[in-house]
């Protein structure tokens, strides 16, 4: 079974869809972009998402204190780092008992040397561009795959890359809104693999 994270939640309605479709993880984005939420919005989403589904906070060069504060308030359970954060940041968060997903481009050699709990390969945060799955390097940590995934291509992506987890946001949206049918399809496909 491949785990799946549905990212880019913005509203209690999105949380309700997550509770129906049962992905392994849900995500809220604190980095600038179309899916960005405030800490207050994230708190509301956390209150509506089933407590059994961990909420991942997505950050890009955010202050360590902000991430720790969101974790201490039980808003997020995992930190996903999309920026230039170095290993000292990874270790500082882990020392605070925060699991870390560190995001890299497939060509970044540093992916092989991080101590993060999981390495994610993406084409660039929220770009929606699909990676060349044949170019994904082998690494020792659990691997997450993101970038342009949707119900039409995720099965092939899983077969080629064999990731621990797939991560999708815009690939399960219709007119910019999370779609229950697309999310349910994604979760079903991932969990079958």
TrEMBL record:
The answer to whether the entry has keyword Cell cycle is no
The residue stretches assigned to a coiled coil in this entry are none
> Which keywords does UniProt give here?
Amino-acid biosynthesis, Aromatic amino acid biosynthesis, Isomerase, Tryptophan biosynthesis
- Give the domain of life: Bacteria
Q: Which InterPro entries match?
A: Aldolase_TIM, PRAI_dom, RibuloseP-bd_barrel, TrpF_fam
Catalytic reactions of this protein: N-(5-phospho-beta-D-ribosyl)anthranilate = 1-(2-carboxyphenylamino)-1-deoxy-D-ribulose 5-phosphate
> According to its UniProt record, in which pathway does this protein act?
Amino-acid biosynthesis; L-tryptophan biosynthesis; L-tryptophan from chorismate: step 3/5
EC assignment: the record states 5.3.1.24
Main enzyme class: isomerase
Where in this chain does the record put each N-(5'phosphoribosyl) anthranilate isomerase (PRAI) domain? 4-187
What does the record give under GO molecular function? isomerase activity
Q: List the PANTHER family hit by this protein, alphabetically.
A: N-(5'-PHOSPHORIBOSYL)ANTHRANILATE ISOMERASE (PTHR42894)
Q: Which family does it belong to?
A: Belongs to the TrpF family.
Quote the protein name from its UniProt record.
Answer: N-(5'-phosphoribosyl)anthranilate isomerase
């Amino acid at each position: 079974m491949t785990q799946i994270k549905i990212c880019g939640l913005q509203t209690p309605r999105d949380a309700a869809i997550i509770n129906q479709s049962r992905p392994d993880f849900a995500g809220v984005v604190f980095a600038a972009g179309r899916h960005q939420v405030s800490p207050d919005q994230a708190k509301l989403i956390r209150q509506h998402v089933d407590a059994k589904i961990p909420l991942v906070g997505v950050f890009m060069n955010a202050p360590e204190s902000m991430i720790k504060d969101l974790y201490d308030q039980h808003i997020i359970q995992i930190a996903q780092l999309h920026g230039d954060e170095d290993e000292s940041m990874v270790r500082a968060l882990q020392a605070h008992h925060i699991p870390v997903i560190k995001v890299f481009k497939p060509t970044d050699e540093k992916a092989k040397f991080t101590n993060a709990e999981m390495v994610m390969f993406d084409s660039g945060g929220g770009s929606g561009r699909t990676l060349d799955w044949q170019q994904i390097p082998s690494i020792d940590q659990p691997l997450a795959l993101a970038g342009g995934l949707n119900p039409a291509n995720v099965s092939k992506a899983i077969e080629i890359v064999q990731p621990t987890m797939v991560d999708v946001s815009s690939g399960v949206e219709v007119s910019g809104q999370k779609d229950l049918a697309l999310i349910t399809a994604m979760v079903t496909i991932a969990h079958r693999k």
